[in-house]
């Protein structure tokens, strides 16, 4: 089973590139951000997730891990999964390792998109026009998301580096160029 963790800060292009990888390799794409946004807006869970996401804070691990596991379980015959936006903390990475180990599989590789902070900010501000997302519209919330990434999420790369599973991919350039870099990285796994 091909289990790819597509990693990078908010605005790095994980969602855009996931669609292309999903198509080329026939993988299931799971974005925890998308899963949270797709919950029934009247449910308690959706309201809780939104109360964190709208401010640019992480949804607590306990909730996020449960959501991720139930999403993965919807695809028992998947030949592989792209994890987009998960794991975002070391506790989530440990939970994913344990969850996959129980299924007799493991993370194949983490592909980490590297994009400078100024570029991230301008991409997110541009995205606000089309995404309608509250967390894209406000520069202070964008700043909080980037800081949360630097403080809580960036260390997850070290977790996979220790397992020799980390590849850094230059995330600046045309969408096509970046897709091709990801394809080469996956083809050489
Ligand atoms: P982006 O990568 O652009 O920040 P996402 O769509 O991946 O956006 O996530 C939006 C929000 O959903 C995050 O800011 C966070 O509040 C919540 N979220 C998504 N994935 C996770 C996760 N793995 N752990 C905690 N919170 C998460």
Structural summary, described in words:
This protein has helices at about 15-25, 30-40, 45-55, 60-70, 90-100, 115-130, 135, 140-155, 155-160, 175-185, and strands at about 1-5, 30, 80-85, 110-115, 165-170. It has one domain (about 1-185): 3-Layer(aba) Sandwich (Rossmann fold). Helix content is about 55%, strand content about 15%. The protein is α/β, with parallel strands linked by helices. A five-stranded parallel sheet has the order 2-3-1-4-5, with helices on both faces. The model has no long low-confidence stretch (mean pLDDT about 95). It is built from ten helices and five strands, in the order βαβαααβαβααααβα. It starts with a strand and ends with a helix. Helix 1 (about 15-25) packs across helix 10, helix 4 packs parallel to helix 5 (about 90-100) and helix 6 (about 115-130) crosses helix 8. The longest helix is centred in the middle third of the chain and has 15 residues, at about 115-130. Adenosine-5'-diphosphate (ADP) binds near residues 10, 31, 64 and 145.
Number of domains: 1
Main β-sheet, in a few words? 5 strands, parallel
Heterogens: adenosine-5'-diphosphate
Provide the succession of SSEs.
Answer: EHEHHHEHEHHHHEH
Radius of gyration: 16 Å
Number of helices: 10
List the strand order in the largest sheet.
2-3-1-4-5
Quote the CATH topology: Rossmann fold
- Tell me the span between the first and last alpha carbons: 12 Å
What spatial form do the alpha-carbon principal axes imply? globular
What is the CATH H-level superfamily?
A: P-loop containing nucleotide triphosphate hydrolases
How confident is the prediction overall: mean pLDDT?
97
> Which CATH class applies here?
Alpha Beta
Strand content: 5-15%
